[in-house]
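Whiteboard transcription, Tuesday session. T.W. wrote the structure tokens on the left side:
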């Protein structure tokens, strides 16, 4: 099997496998949110709830809580909680009376995070007597003050038409501002805006850049989108090495779809013949960990891949060298009795005229 034919066959198999599973199957949840809120207001509310319940609170946490109250009273920025305390309060909604009262103190110094936490509490029904419209007002204030999570949430509301009809043109600047602040979900959504041309002109280069930044921050679906763009040369040069690295990192995080894409990227490389073991490893992993669709599609393609490798390693079919024939030679014989001459003309088989 000629290598050029082998490479073409592998490229088709790799592209076919990636395309067969493209929408959906075994992919990470596209709606998953990756951004995690951690700020001083959540941490204080956690401590306030623990103290009210009579739970044990460390001396260090008590001291930090006092410094939070003192800063609010003095009109100063809230102090940073310890990493451990902040982690315990991740994505918490402020619900205690003390926590909500202290948020109002920090509003006086235009604390964007305090406005956002108040908005979340109101919109989740944690503040009796305050209307959703007032909550949206708090969210808008937090967004105007530059809180990236508020900008992301407000943009999301414009996308779905919460304030009337869908408004992608208004949503994009908010989303992109949050993206530039490093908000991972905003990075992914901004990439979608530019890839699909939503509320703006399509720009594949910007889309690929934003997908890449989201992928660096752990957004799994962004990894997949960046993979397909690198594979297809959309917004960047076609590069199966980059596609493979993206897919391998996805697979290393336990995503079966990453194993499929890893095999597909290697199959499409020019030196695919050198990656046989790794390609079959990834396909085997996909068969082991994938869902029904993955197992069906990879199961159909894997025997073809194995057959292609076997043909590529088979000894080449022998074809004899074309040799130069000798000129025709006429041989004449005279009959001894009759004296008649007879002649025949044939190829000169005796001599080698090729050398």
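and on the right, the sequence the group agreed on:
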């Amino acid at each position: 099997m000629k290598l050029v034919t082998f490479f073409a066959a592998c490229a088709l198999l790799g592209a076919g496998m990636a395309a067969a599973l493209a929408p959906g199957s075994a992919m990470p949840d596209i709606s998953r949110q990756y951004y995690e809120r951690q700020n001083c207001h959540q941490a204080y509310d956690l401590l306030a709830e623990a103290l009210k319940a009579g739970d044990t609170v460390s001396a260090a946490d008590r001291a930090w809580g006092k410094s939070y109250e003192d800063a609010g009273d003095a009109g100063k920025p809230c102090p940073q909680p310890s990493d451990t305390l902040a982690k315990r309060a991740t994505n918490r909604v402020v619900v205690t009376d003390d926590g909500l009262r202290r948020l109002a103190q920090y509003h006086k110094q235009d604390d964007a995070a305090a406005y956002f936490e108040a908005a979340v509490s109101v919109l989740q029904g944690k503040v009796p007597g305050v209307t959703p419209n007032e909550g949206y007002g708090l969210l808008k204030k937090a967004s105007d003050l530059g809180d990236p999570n508020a900008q992301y949430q407000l943009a999301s509301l414009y996308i779905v038409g919460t304030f009337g009809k869908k408004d992608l043109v208004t949503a994009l600047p908010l989303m992109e501002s949050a993206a530039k602040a490093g908000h991972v979900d905003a990075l992914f959504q901004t990439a979608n805006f530019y890839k699909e041309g939503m509320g703006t002109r399509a720009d594949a280069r910007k889309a690929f850049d934003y997908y890449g930044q989201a992928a660096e921050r752990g957004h799994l679906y962004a990894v997949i989108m960046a993979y397909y763009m690198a594979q297809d040369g959309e917004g960047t040069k076609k590069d199966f090495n980059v596609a493979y690295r993206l897919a391998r990192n996805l697979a290393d995080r336990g995503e079966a779809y990453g194993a499929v894409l890893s095999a597909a990227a290697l199959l499409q490389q020019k030196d695919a013949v050198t990656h046989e073991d790794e390609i079959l490893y990834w396909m085997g992993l996909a068969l082991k960990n994938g869902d029904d669709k993955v197992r069906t599609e990879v199961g159909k393609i894997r025997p073809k891949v194995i057959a292609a490798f076997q043909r590529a390693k088979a000894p080449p079919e022998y074809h004899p060298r074309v040799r130069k024939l000798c000129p025709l030679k006429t041989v004449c014989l005279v009959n001894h009795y009759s004296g008649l001459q007879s002649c025949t003309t044939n190829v000169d088989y005796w001599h080698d005229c090729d050398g």
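Someone added at the bottom: The longest strand covers residues 328-334.
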